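Technical note accompanying the year-one report. For the benefit of new consortium partners, we illustrate the data format agreed upon in the data management plan: each record pairs a sequence with a structure-token string. No post-processing was applied to the example shown here.
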Amino acid sequence: MALIIVESPTKARTFNRILHGGNYYVFATMGHIRDLPGNKMAIDFDHDFKPDYTIIKNKTKIVNQLKKLAKENDEIILATDPDREGESISYHVAYLLGLINEKWPEIEFKKGKEPKRIVFHEITANALKEALAKPETLRLDLVKAQQARRILDRIVGYDLSPLLWKKMGKNWLSAGRVQTVALRLIVEREKEIANFRQEEHYQIFGQFEDGQLLKAKLISKDNVPYEQKFKLNLFAADYQYTKTTINKDNVKTLKTDLLADKYKIDHVDETTSNRYPPPPFTTSLMQQDAFHKLGFSSKQTMHIAQDLYEYGLITYHRTDSFNLSTQFVFAAADYIRKTYGENYALAKPRGYHNKSKMAQEAHEAIRPTKLVKEVDADGKLTSNHVRLYDLIFRRALATQMKEASVKTITVDIRGEKGFLFETKTEQVVFDGFFKVLNPQFAGNNNIGLSVKEGISIILKAIEAQTQMTNPPPRYNEASLIRTLEEKGIGRPSTYAPIISLIQDKYYIEKELRYFIPTKLGTAISDYLSVAFPDIFDLNFTASMEENLDKIAGGETDFIDLLKKFNEPFHKELKTRQNDQKVINVEDDVDEKCPRCGSKLVIRYSKFGKFLACSAFPKCKFTKPFLKAVPGKKCPKCGGDIIVRFSKSKKRFYGCSNYPKCTFSVWRLNQLGN
């Protein structure tokens, strides 16, 4: 008998279903079983950063059971997930089973006890059969990369967090190597929004008639465009906005001149271009699409995807590769021919090139393991599982469909006084991959525009639309993940926990799906970015990720990397520990303390915001902080509607008279007042 070791019971059940028992016994570790303890640094700086790993609390029973099973079976096969995290779990399992010597910083297998490791990117019969037929061994370079990341994050977290406690008087705060950079992006964006000076301008549209109505936008006069583009140099990237030279001083005169002019259709340009399907999902692309189309948070998306993977329905969901297996692309071509017709199938498979220099091309993109559109025949999936599976299925299938053909018709309408209007329409000539990925667009744009050059056309009406220049938008989950990936900060698998953590610590809040930094988050970001300018610089953080990838590729020594980071970090840390700076994050409110009459202020605890007396410690009055929604009243009792948060940090709106009144809604538009 062979003992196969996986992480989760769901994965174990899928293995058992595929293998039908046979000569295998599948055991789940229930995640990590050995890690750095949570109550101390556990890093020996005098001995090359040697970590002091311990068995995780409540996992002793599992470890004992694992050791017993290892003795009862002839062979041990490690079958954890194929990324660095999975490799690390396998490594700790192998150590606890006596297969590895830890001669830090070197790792070696005990003579004659080299463990078997199988690597697969989908849990299907064929994939497991191939993996079991060609077992590998532990990929120690991946283990070293994961340990280097773990040690780096431990050093930063365990040394910086006490510094924040000292500066702010709160022993529940935390800082992190990547977490703080993500927070800084949100904080700096909020400053850019606050500093942006909005300007009013106008866009003018004309309603023309020549037997049919055409709405066209005013573009220029005497070939001088009205619209101008401006760039802001932002913390993360250049932001471009546009405005016109049409303002409240000249709009009336311009409208009069336009109505007095005579027009004709000066030029009609028809161009047909191909639209190609987007690449298959990587982790970050899946998180972004699920946010926009399904309203899922990154944490929710990863949890659902983990289930789909362990049920054997999709390939491994932590990946940054665009690769698709030969087996899938040829099966997809057959499926497309049978389902949609020969003209939708490609003559040869389409591939995609990943521009990211950190992409791990050995992985596959996220795709269905079988070309089955409908899933959940046995009722084990929720509606959210089905929705995310459908998103993955259609995206992967679309990559192997013919490109769409779209005709763009541009009509120039010119006046005798030199005014130029322009209108554009799109007509889908052949829907191609739109059939699967965007049928609504194809259905709404299937009729062309028929106009002739040189004919006169009458301007029936003018519409001047007031516009405001817009500041850069706040980050939401999708745009933050996209920026983190573009800047090379963190790894796709870390985005969800990072975003969850900075919300759990009340460093940021969500408002209408967008992130807003709290005063606490802003204070922490500002202090750390000034006190440790190198460590929390975007380029430095990105280069560290690149170095971790080099460790995984066997190109860099991980002890050297740790030394180069640790020495300057602790030198700066010592300086900051000795300064007397104190960070105050109190917010004043227009309310007096009912006990002593002093001002009330907003303070923070690990449970969130609360109101406290500014005369503390003389007066210890506190009460919950309840933020009322302006202009909204409870439809049941007339009380104020206030913002509340569920245990999972999800925002909802409830009556201020709770628990007497239990009215609550998830969205403000459900109030109806």
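Partners are asked to follow this layout when depositing records. Confidence is low (pLDDT under 50) at residues 357-361.
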